[in-house]
Amino acid sequence: MASRMKLVLESAIVIGLIIGIILMAPMMNFIKAYIELHTITSREPIYSPNVIEQYAKTMISFGVFMLS
Fold first, then answer.
1. Which of 39, 45, 22, 42 is nearest to 57 (CA)?
2. Cβ-contact 54, 33 below 8 angstroms
3. Distance of alpha carbon 42 from alpha carbon 24, whole angstroms
4. Strand blocks (E) in the chain
5. What is the model's pTM?
6. Do residues 51 and 41 make contact, with C-beta atoms less than 8 angstroms apart?
């Protein structure tokens, strides 16, 4: 019985690590886009083309992260 529980636990850990590694790239892209958005909004008006473009990139990267 203990070996079956150990096997299930090991399988759950491996699956969790695989999912974590798969989600790492989209999550890092979103974090990078979010930081760039804050950098741009601190130095330019909120409705400037650069801010709008970066906001769109941030939302796209968030969508990709949520879909993956």
1. 39
2. yes
3. 27
4. none
5. 0.67
6. yes
- pLDDT attached to residue 66: 85
Joined together, the tokens standing for residue 65 give 């992260």
Please give the single-letter amino acid code of residue 42. Answer: S
d(CA 54, CA 2): 53
| pLDDT above 80 (res 1) | no
The two structure tokens encoding residue 29: 């892209």
| pLDDT the model gives residue 4 | 82
Give SS3 for 32.
Answer: helix
Tokens 């636990």: give the residue. Answer: 9
- Could you tell me which of 11, 58, 13 has the C-alpha nearest to residue 32? 58
For the chain, give the percent of residues with pLDDT over 70: 97
Residue 37's Cβ-side half-sphere holds a number of Cα atoms within 13 Å equal to 19
